[in-house]
Amino acid sequence: MKRLFALSLLLLTPTISQAAPSTQELSLKVVQDFVIPSYDVFSHQAKIQADAWDKTCNGDTLKPLFHNTSDAWAAVQHINFGPITLLLRRDRLYHWPERRNAVGKSLNKALNDKDNSLLSAKKITGASVALQGLPALERILYTDAIKDDYGCQLGKAIAHNIEEIANGTLKDWKAALPNIKEGSAHPIFFESNDEVAIRLFTELLTGFQMISDQKIALPMGSNLKKANGKRAEGWRSLRSTRYIQQSAKSLRAMALPFVSFLPEKSAEKTEQQLSKFVQLASTLPSPLKDAVTDEEARKKILTFRDEISKTRNLIVEEFTQHLGLTVGFNSLDGD
Amino acid sequence: MISRRQFLSVSAAGLGAVLFPYSAKAAAPLTGWLSGFMDKEGRYGVAHIAPDLSAEILFYTPLRLHGIYKHPTHPLIVAPSRRPDTEMFVFDLDQQKVTVISSAEGRHFYGHGVFSADGNTYYTTENAYDDEIGVIGAYDVTQNFKRVGEMPSGGIGPHEMKRAQDTLVISNGGILTHPNMGRAKLNIDDMQPNLSYLDLRTGKITKQHHLPEKLNQLSIRHMDMTADGQVFIGLQDQLKNRRDLPLVWKTQNDTLTPLSAPQEGWRIFNGYIGSVRATPDSLCVASPRGGCAYVWDKTAPHKIDQKDVCGVAYARQDSFLLTSGDGVLRTLNGASQTHDLRFDNHSQFIG
User: Fold this and answer.
1) Of A182, A214, A242, which residue sits at a domain end?
2) Chain B neighbors of A189, CB-CB under 8 A
């Protein structure tokens, strides 16, 4: 697949037109306004979901809670920095895109074997990442597995596993907050606030790329003939479009703390573009798995994809110019 | 085994995005280094860096490049695209012609390769993605890089490799990807990187080195080999936090041994080594994510701070050239120049 973003707007040496905020101010604001609150919502939704699995195996009750948890996950899905990188948390929560039906295979095996030891918190944590997170839970909920007693028990174990990972990630971020406030190195996650600010900025940019390269490009294929709706994220629960919309909202929410440090005109321009981006996402066709094989719907999706790169490029331009942030070339994307 | 091969030879004019600013100097043999780049307009290509650290653009390409290799005797440059792209560019400096070789069906390139001792064959690291194995593709240089065969790489995700006589030493990074899934890494939980020795006469793997099992999330990616066969490898931590784990290892008594830790700790590399180059007396690695290079030499190992540095190449007088995404070129002898180009991952010394 071609790189979808020509990094053409990157300036080699940004000229800073006014006093840029310190990386400590930036890091603290983004972590306090976006990162911790978002993990808080995720952890909270995951707990509501896990508690419900304790009480029922009724799909109609559990499905809305699955969607709420998935929405909350989508808000932080693009972050691959800090506590989520510990203990394979990110892969365990969300093994997607998946390796050759890895989720289906490990789930079917578990359902066939009815291995009761998997139902313990200790065991599920050590199982294949494909079996541990939201994609496996989606399959249980949207197949007959939920009607099977063992299937429901496994769903319960997975829901609790998700809750534990979400909660652990939140706790670790809260524990790292004093380091950011003091500007000191964290023993595992970062050396300095310079690193925190740059990494959060990088993860924000990655978020735009993730929508384009994975959520859209994978099911779209390079042309109509190569489209494959079953490569869309969360197609079983018909939430592929909702995932994109949630991601778009969350990228806006993550960008706004940065935007608050921009000069007025620049802030206004960036906010407008972010709103346009979120608004356009809300008009995307659904379900995506069918839309990708429809000529007209594809046009709409491609228009949105252009808006993704416009938004990203504007952010790069404004943030590097006014916030003292730089985008690495080799450090951002290497092999 | 030869799968369906696509072989596309086009003139410069026919390929649209591939242009040839290089002209009058075509006859003069190049000295110095080659590097991939991206310019201010977002165009990719091959740049030539002269011994005085001036730089000129030789070619533009429609894709981002990775490793760039000069033929040992002929005025040819080869650049396999990086994953998951399927084009390999062959630039003929004399005839000013570019040939684009497409990968075999079900294969894509990883961005690195080596020439055989006689220069008649070029080997590249490739992904046989539906079989989920790494392969080494063999291309006949004398037949316009016709693909003439392939051999197993000994693992998943082969990346950089080196050759000693009839043996290829291959870094198998261990990471599974599939072009249908873009650049997504699909097996971080159970990856098993290794260093494999492939006998080119038999096509068989003769030896493999592994990291201790608990370090399997460290992908073996870049490497170098000294004339006496000692191999140095640079690793990339797939759990992206600043773990204090050894990221540079060497072969010794037929096992892998970590180098002495930098005084500042392994954390300075932020989990990522981008290039490794060794001379008989010293070793230099670069870490774009750590914003530094590090040299182990006879005197005192030391860190060199350089933002976005990734390329490391041999330089004369027992030195190294560092190249950065900020356009900086500097040798360890103190020479430096800054250009309006982003120097891409690797640079190669060409004499």
Assistant:
1) A182
2) 241-242
